[in-house]
Amino acid sequence: MKIGLFLDKKIRDFIVKYKMLERGDGVVIGLSGGPDSVCLFFVLLELKEEYDLTLKALHVNHCIRGIEADKDQEFVRNLCLTHGVDLEEHVVDIPALVEKTGRSTEEEARIARYELFEKAAENLANETGKPAKIAIAHNADDNAETVLFHMARGTGLDGMCGIAPVRDNIIRPLLEVPKSEILQVLKDNNIDYCIDATNNQVDYDRNRIRHNIMPEFAQINDRALEHISEMTQRLTEVADYINLEARGLLQIAKEENGHLRKRAIATAPSVIASQAIKLYLSSFMPYQKDVSAVHVDKILELLNEDGERQVQLPYKKTLIISYEEMYVLEEDETKVEPVFNYREFDYEQGMNYPTDRYTKWFDCDKISGNVVIRNRAEGDYLTIDSEGNHKLLQDYFIDEKIPRHLRDEVPLVCDDSHVMWVVGYRISEHYKISKNTTRVLEISYTEE
């Protein structure tokens, strides 16, 4: 089968369905030299004139396979030279990065490649004046292997959807094509490619799936690959609907300060609430996968519990589930420095009390010790009514639903253990101005 016929029968409708290409696009091709990427290279060459594409290939030598990797790089260089396609080459010492970061070799290589792809696409967009696409050569086998890999490791709906045909500016035109058909079309057209010997080793999880599990699926049903692909498409439609509902829930639940109303999330259907939580937490993370099902399930469990709860998240972040809201706390959030100003003056009947929440008057004659500014300490209390009844500060914090992580930071104006003012909240009844007041201490609070 010629490349043109292969394109018409297997790929063209898929490209149109997912709006992968537009006329005048710039496309960065991930070109390893393996059969999949070489096939993608020739498919895009076939489409170059039709779509008026500006093509640029990018090859990454991961420094993993020594001289074999160097040969692949040379092959790609000659291929691009022969067909007049610009090539961007990179050499990245993945083993050294793995030693530094502790990530797996596969993960580190993937991160390095996609960072380079994005940079190349940005540069190509600057040259052409249009956003550039990144073409990756994932095929139907890769998609099925990914689904099985996710199932084995534990996954939710997103993981069962497999590899997306389009994600942002990344396109995968070969995603519905089986590997066997790719190899056949290369053979029919006498097109050479490189063989990565590590793909035949079963040291990597994906290779175990490829060589041990996928053949068994084919024995059960020779259309197993097709059926997995169809399943991922149907599940993607379900996931898209859930995402739509989850984003709507977030709009309803989100307050002006960015916090979420706890009740709005807690009363939503679990499947929608789960995805809303995942989307919300992902906005604070470098990668969506940093939010695991463990985090989401724990949060759902805590939403219906009384009091304040905390869930530790990656990157030194904490989700606070308070009495009425939930929000993410950054460990490195800058703390403000409080500034207090004081003045004393004689009191005269009829004076207007300050209405500012952060300016308060106190009866000087009722202050028995030295006025100090501090945070809470054991034994602190307030006078809560005109009868002189006391309440421990800890109990007051609970009754007022002040988040636990803020309680040690609330400034207090104190007369020994008697709290005169819980700044931002209330003053003690004992120190309020009365008809017997002769002198006033005014204290105002600001933040630098």
From TrEMBL:
GO cellular component terms attached to this protein's record: cytoplasm
EC class of the enzyme, as a word: ligase
InterPro entries: Lysidine-tRNA-synth_C (IPR012796), Phe-tRNA_synthase-like_B3/B4 (IPR020825), Rossmann-like_a/b/a_fold (IPR014729), TilS/TtcA_N (IPR011063), tRNA_Ile_lys_synt (IPR012094), tRNA_Ile_lys_synt_N (IPR012795)
Main location: cytoplasm
EC number: 6.3.4.19
Pfam families the record matches: ATP_bind_3, TilS_C
Subcellular location: Cytoplasm
Annotated residues for binding of ATP: 32-37
Domain Lysidine-tRNA(Ile) synthetase C-terminal: 371-443
UniProt entry keywords in alphabetical sequence: ATP-binding, Cytoplasm, Ligase, Nucleotide-binding, tRNA processing
Membership in a protein family: Belongs to the tRNA(Ile)-lysidine synthase family.
PANTHER family: TRNA(ILE)-LYSIDINE SYNTHASE-RELATED
Name of the protein described by the UniProt record: tRNA(Ile)-lysidine synthase
Organism: Pseudobutyrivibrio ruminis
